[in-house]
């Protein structure tokens, strides 16, 4: 069974710690997405896996073999890089065939495989063309063809579709998933775009400043982000973050902000007493958990806090509506309503928020504090 195991790898360039103590595994048949902003260390990790860079520390195992110091040519890994790595002086056919010729495959087999890959990628008519005459989308498919033709132990894709238009992106994503299904080998896909990550990944590793922040399925990351960075990075429209204070009244803990106030259920008591009364806490409120007055009945028996807010601005967004609301002099919320009710700037609305769905983060470490992901408030 094919498996990639990356164990505690780090890489420093001068003063810059590009990758810090990164570990993850990718199973056979799994597409693992490394998701993070620019400069977070994604490409450096991939370059260490392919052998173009040596990690300062740590180990890389492929199929249980330690490949950390192995020459890149000795690693059976197929890669699509950001700049495609296509030779512009060669034809589409020769570019796709190159990897097999390099490994001295018989001519007939090369011919058969190139034809098969070209058929799958819709490149049959283009095989004789010089690659310098191709569009961005076609070049991309040639790059995928070059990877697809190989029988590698691992497939790597470094932001392969960032330059393409939305339609070609969708198509190319499907082609990459097809490679993955056919090859049944571990794959790593790098992107900065969380929509892309969610549409492709079995699991995602979110990375920032060279460190893996969290590894999980798309659902796990959205439902239980490990920290404020992950919650923010995956939220669009942006996550509302507001500061609150914990207050102890008798034996009961309360949350107070300048617009919200509610009591914590007993499950929170041990954690809140460790933080201490009067401590700060950061609330993360996703725009889509804010419920407008005309939909509050859809919340059923769920717990809720209600407040009044003024519409500052609203605008349609792909069948939904984003609304900027002012709940107090210092607190504005971005809300996202499903229903396309007419809303006027300046209008006063009642809104409801289910506190079960609010994220609470530590004021210094910014780690998620919620004791369990769901339903602590509803037990209250
Ligand atoms: N060979 C190098 N020499 C010096 N610094 C480097 C080198 N390679 C990468 N870096 C630095 O390491 C950091 C991480 O770079 P890396 O390319 O891995 O990030 P990335 O997440 O892939 O970014 P992007 O999404 O923009 O491609 C950056 O600050 C980069 O400047």
UniProtKB/TrEMBL annotation:
Residues 4-234 form the ABC transporter domain. Pfam families: ABC_tran. InterPro entries: AAA+_ATPase, ABC_transporter-like_ATP-bd, ABC_transporter-like_CS, ABC_transpr_MalK/UgpC-like, Mo/tungstate-bd_C_term_dom, NA-bd_OB-fold, P-loop_NTPase. It comes from the Bacteria. GO terms for cellular component: ATP-binding cassette (ABC) transporter complex, substrate-binding subunit-containing. Keywords: ATP-binding, Nucleotide-binding, Transport. The keyword Transferase does not apply. The keyword Transport applies. GO terms for molecular function: ABC-type transporter activity; ATP binding; ATP hydrolysis activity. SMART domains: AAA. PANTHER family: MALTODEXTRIN IMPORT ATP-BINDING PROTEIN MSMX, OSMOPROTECTIVE COMPOUNDS UPTAKE ATP-BINDING PROTEIN GGTA. This is ABC transporter ATP-binding protein. The lineage of its organism: Bacteria, Bacillati, Chloroflexota, Ktedonobacteria, Ktedonobacterales.
């Amino acid at each position: 069974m094919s498996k990639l195991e990356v164990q505690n790898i780090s890489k420093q360039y001068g003063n810059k710690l590009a990758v810090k103590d990164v570990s993850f595994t990718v199973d056979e048949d799994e597409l693992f997405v490394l998701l993070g902003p620019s400069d977070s260390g994604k490409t450096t990790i991939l370059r260490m896996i392919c052998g173009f860079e040596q990690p300062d520390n740590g180990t890389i195992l492929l199929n249980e073999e330690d490949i950390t110091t192995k020459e890149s040519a000795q690693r059976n890994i197929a890669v699509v890089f950001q700049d495609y790595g296509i030779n512009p002086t060669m034809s589409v056919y020769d570019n796709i065939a190159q990897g097999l010729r390099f490994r001295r495959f018989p001519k007939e087999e090369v011919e058969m495989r190139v034809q098969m890959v070209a058929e799958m990628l819709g490149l049959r008519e283009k095989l004789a063309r010089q690659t310098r005459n191709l569009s961005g989308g076609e070049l991309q498919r040639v790059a995928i063809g070059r990877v697809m033709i190989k029988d590698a132990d691992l497939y790597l894709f470094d932001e392969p579709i960032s330059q393409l238009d939305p339609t070609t992106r969708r198509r190319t994503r499907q082609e990459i998933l097809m490679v993955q299904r056919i090859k049944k080998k571990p794959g790593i896909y790098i992107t900065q775009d969380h929509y892309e990550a969610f549409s492709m990944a079995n699991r995602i590793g979110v990375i920032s400043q060279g460190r893996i922040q969290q590894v999980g399925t798309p659902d796990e990351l959205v439902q239980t982000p490990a920290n404020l960075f992950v919650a923010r990075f995956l939220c669009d429209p942006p996550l509302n973050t507001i500061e609150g204070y914990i207050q102890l009244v008798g034996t009961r803990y309360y949350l107070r902000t300048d617009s919200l106030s509610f009591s914590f259920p007993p499950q929170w008591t041990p954690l809140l007493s460790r933080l201490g009364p009067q401590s700060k806490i950061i609330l993360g409120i996703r725009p889509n958990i804010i419920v407008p007055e005309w939909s509050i009945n859809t919340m059923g028996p769920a717990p809720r806090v209600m407040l009044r807010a003024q519409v500052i601005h609203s605008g349609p967004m792909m069948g939904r509506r984003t609304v900027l609301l002012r709940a107090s002099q210092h607190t504005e919320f971005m809300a996202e309503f499903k229903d396309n009710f007419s809303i006027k700037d300046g209008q006063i609305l009642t809104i409801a928020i289910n506190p079960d769905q609010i994220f609470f983060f530590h004021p210094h470490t910014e780690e998620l504090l919620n004791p369990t992901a769901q339903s602590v408030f509803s037990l209250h």
